UniProtKB/TrEMBL annotation:
Xref: InterPro entries: Adhesion/Biosynth-related, FAS1_dom_sf, FAS1_domain
Residues annotated as domain FAS1: 19-167, 169-300
The entry's keywords: Signal
GO biological process: macroautophagy
Gene Ontology CC terms: fungal-type vacuole membrane
Chain segments annotated as coiled-coil in the UniProt record: none
The organism's place on the tree of life at top rank: Eukaryota
Species, as recorded: Coleophoma cylindrospora
Annotated signal peptide: 1-17
Protein name: FAS1 domain-containing protein
Amino acid sequence: MHLQYLLPVALAAVAAAQNRTLAQAIAGQSSLTTFQSLLSAQPDLVRALSNASSITILAPSNDAFSKFLSTTDGKAASAQPDVVAAVLQYHVLNAEVPGSAFTTTPQFVPSLLTNSTYANVTGGQVVEGVLNGKTVEIYSGLKLKSTVTTADITFQGGVMHIIDNVLTIPPSDAVTAVDSQLTSLAGALTKANLVTAVDDLKDVTIFAPSNDAFKQIGGTAESLSTQQLTTILEYHVIKGTVGYSTLLIGGLANETLPSLSGAGLNILIEDNKVFVDSAQVTMADIIVANGVMHVIGNVLNPDNTSATPNPTATTQSVAFAGATSAANAPFTSGINPTTTAPAAGITSKAAAARQTGAIGAAALFGGAAMIAVNL
Ligand SMILES: *[C@@H]1O[C@H](CO)[C@@H](O)[C@H](O)[C@H]1NC(C)=O
Ligand SMILES: *[C@@H]1O[C@H](CO)[C@@H](O)[C@H](O)[C@H]1NC(C)=O
Ligand SMILES: *[C@@H]1O[C@H](CO)[C@@H](O)[C@H](O)[C@H]1NC(C)=O
Ligand SMILES: *[C@@H]1O[C@H](CO)[C@@H](O)[C@H](O)[C@H]1NC(C)=O
Ligand SMILES: *[C@@H]1O[C@H](CO)[C@@H](O)[C@H](O)[C@H]1NC(C)=O
Ligand SMILES: *[C@@H]1O[C@H](CO)[C@@H](O)[C@H](O)[C@H]1NC(C)=O
């Protein structure tokens, strides 16, 4: 056959593809039958989606759902229509992002998940999307990775990508800290009775010192008064700004942001590294229920707001003059990390290599119970 005959047929196919309804687009994919049946049990969401424009659907494959549902918590979740609705809402992005729009610079795209039972982020909880080589990767709670396996299935209201892992709704700050081996921070928040106060805030940026950072001042830290500890911890929290890495590197570079303690935090970008005061961000962009958490290599000192980094050094000086270190991470007694989540300080790429499944589901659905028991 000649090209001139093929071309109109091909164009018609494209037009038909773009003019498909969402239901037709899903029905056309043999790997989306579980997604289809879960969606069909959510008439409110189906109605909203059928009428939506400029959205992106991240559709987990049947394999992704069977991994998810093979866990005890995933199975329990699937029996709760409210939870299923929230999980599905997190898989719908409020912008049309075709595969070609993802770049090596991360993008934080808001989803339809706005219910404050699950997220306290203005405009909806986000996913992080980034291009790694030729692969589009989507990061959700606990920095768990989903990979786009089939991109750009178009329909009237937008575009759909098939992903290989169900997204994890980002857990609270305290659950995320425990699950990310930031057990000193979790313990310190507990000791200062700040867990609920911080978890209930809306739109936060949390600078989370690693356990090694706490160890550096561990000899002194345990003897701080509750008031001193509270002020120090509050100095690690910015309220009212969700400072994803792109924002820190962009509009917030060289800015001083007010922390909960009242003192200002200085954001500095030097030598391609991100610093807050003198502490380096060692792992960026762990999405949490109420914003974003960045792991840092030093505990910040609210009485040392003029501390500046040595950008070419691999580690930074302790920001508390005279503080003594400890062999073990302080505040961790009674707090047991439940997973082998990324140890603080490793790169996000390494963290990203982790598998989802039991970990994500446990954190999502068992997290609240776990924190109550362990903290
Ligand atoms: C798309 O479908 C609608 C009806 O569902 C129709 O009115 C419209 O003409 C179609 N558009 C194209 C470009 O085929
Ligand atoms: C669909 O959207 C239009 C325009 O936004 C609105 O007028 C209409 O009521 C919506 N229909 C449904 C079924 O939600
Ligand atoms: C928010 O989530 C809760 C718990 O799942 C649910 O009971 C409630 O109906 C949801 N609210 C909305 C507006 O969907
Ligand atoms: C959101 O904040 C409210 C209090 O403002 C709190 O009750 C709720 O638990 C928070 N949601 C999450 C997911 O932490
Ligand atoms: C931040 O300040 C440094 C030193 O004053 C300057 O060289 C740099 O251009 C500033 N960066 C931005 C993004 O304003
Ligand atoms: C402030 O932090 C720097 C490290 O950035 C440290 O050398 C200095 O001793 C600290 N000063 C006080 C008063 O804690």
